[in-house]
Specification:
Length: 447
């Protein structure tokens, strides 16, 4: 974009205008526009950028605002039918994105290059803040009504790629996460419904990003779906020599924990509680991965494992005071709202996860509190030490002895048994939870 602007040969005035916009010389640009408003209809020689595009690309928010206040069309198009909003989203200029949306920019415009929207641009270039701003605009605009929010999140470009495909292809795990939370279809195929095409998992496998593969798997990405050439994501990862990704995608390796379907039945899942549970899910899967990847490293010892910082050991010990009375390893971070019983996010997750999401029959009930057996209708962040324990959850999980037992247990009854067995050690160190265990151990034994 820079050279396009520097290549202007259209006369000194245009040159001065675009240079002024690019450099943020508000007063000079303002004076030029006041002197001759027709300069606003001029474009750069290359790419046909208008002043508003140039301001959006170069993050010149003051000039952008000034132009919008002078009634410049926020959806003005360049040669490739790109709007200033697309270019701001591409460049990650969040304040320009917000200002353009505020000025009424249309988030549902498609460029003529690849048939992409501003949402595609934000996802492709990995700008989470822009992605959030655009989706929040979609929530509150007419698009949610006329188009449907879910349809907008899964909007396809000219090649059939959704924003989730593009984020996966570019290795942007946080964008992937945000899109999935907002209803992106994890196993969408680029060729549309019913036809074989690439899924986000195929693209992440090709890219070799372990974080992206992990995120997609945790949301139920299908390891067995084939693309148009009949390959499953595992084969794609092998072909591109991403050994660690291939290990996770190998259909014969243990299935990861998947964001549990029963949680959908918990009304008003507190956003903070949800974040804790999501982090616990990723941490639990990293724990499982350690075993899978160790085996992989033995057989692929020449290939380095990428983005494995999360697998580092963390030996910090939680204080005894608020230890979860189920696993005795993590701090209580989640509380059941009505009864007030607390446990760590990971144990809560196991409680909700012990039924596979495809076991439709068992997913129709909400999970029960393991201490008092009341229905869990709402989860909240535990009050006690909530702030410090967030860091605890964020940090890579340490090797677990007892909790692994519960991850491996199959079926609901054995899950509850393992929860019960662990609890009935009756360690009384916990301020809240320990007492609860003592009171409830009778109940637990009935499972
Ligand atoms: Zn626990
Ligand atoms: Zn309870």
């Amino acid at each position: 974009m820079g050279q396009e602007i520097s290549c202007i040969r259209q006369g000194a005035r245009e040159h001065a205008l675009f240079r002024g916009v690019q450099n943020g010389e508000l007063e000079i640009v303002q004076a030029m526009v006041d002197h001759d408003p027709s300069v606003l209809s001029r474009t750069t020689v290359h790419g046909n950028l208008f002043a508003l595009h140039v301001a959006a690309v170069h993050d010149q928010i003051e000039i952008l605002s000034m132009l919008l206040e002078r009634s410049v069309n926020p959806d003005i198009l360049n040669r490739h039918k790109q709007t200033p909003l697309m270019l701001a989203a591409m460049s990650g200029n969040i304040s320009c994105v917000e200002r353009l949306i505020q000025a009424g920019a249309n988030i549902l415009k498609f460029d003529s290059l690849h048939g992409r929207t501003c949402l595609h641009y934000a996802a492709y270039y990995g700008h989470l803040d822009c992605l959030q701003a655009i989706l929040s605009a979609a929530h509150s605009s007419h698009i949610a009504i006329s188009w449907g929010f879910a349809r907008f999140v899964n909007i396809r470009d000219g090649s059939g790629a959704t924003p989730l495909h593009l984020a996966s292809r570019q290795g942007s795990a946080d964008c992937i996460h945000f899109l999935l939370v907002n209803g992106a279809l994890v196993s969408a195929s680029t060729c549309g419904y019913g036809y074989p095409g690439s899924t986000p998992l195929h693209l992440a496998a090709r890219e070799g990003s372990l974080d992206c593969v992990r995120e997609l798997l945790a949301w139920g990405g299908d390891r067995l779906q084939t693309d148009s050439s009949g390959k499953i994501p595992y084969t794609v990862a092998l072909k591109h020599k991403h050994a660690a990704c291939a290990a996770l995608l190998n259909p014969s390796s243990p299935e990861p924990l998947v964001w549990p379907a029963p949680l959908k039945f918990i009304s008003d899942l507190n956003p903070e509680a949800r974040t804790l549970l999501e982090k616990a899910l990723i941490a639990a899967n990293k724990d499982r991965e350690r075993v899978i990847l160790r085996d992989t490293m033995n057989s692929f010892s020449s290939s380095p494992v990428h983005s494995d910082s999360g697998l580092a050991e963390d030996i910090s010990e939680a204080s005894d005071v608020d230890l979860c009375s189920i696993c005795f390893e993590k701090i209580c971070t989640i509380a059941v709202k009505d009864c007030g019983h607390q446990m760590c996010a990971q144990c809560m997750l196991i409680l909700c996860c012990h039924n596979k999401p495809n076991a439709a029959s068992s997913c129709s009930k909400s999970p029960l509190c393991p201490f008092c057996r009341s229905n869990i209708s709402e989860l909240v962040v535990a009050n006690v030490m909530a702030n410090t324990s967030t860091d605890e959850e964020l940090s890579p999980s340490k090797p677990r002895r007892s909790s692994r037992r519960s991850f491996n247990s199959e079926g609901s009854s054995s899950s509850f048994k393992s929860l019960s067995a662990l609890s009935s050690f009756g360690r009384t160190g916990g301020r809240n939870s320990g007492r609860v265990v003592a009171e409830c151990s009778e109940d637990l034994d009935k499972f």
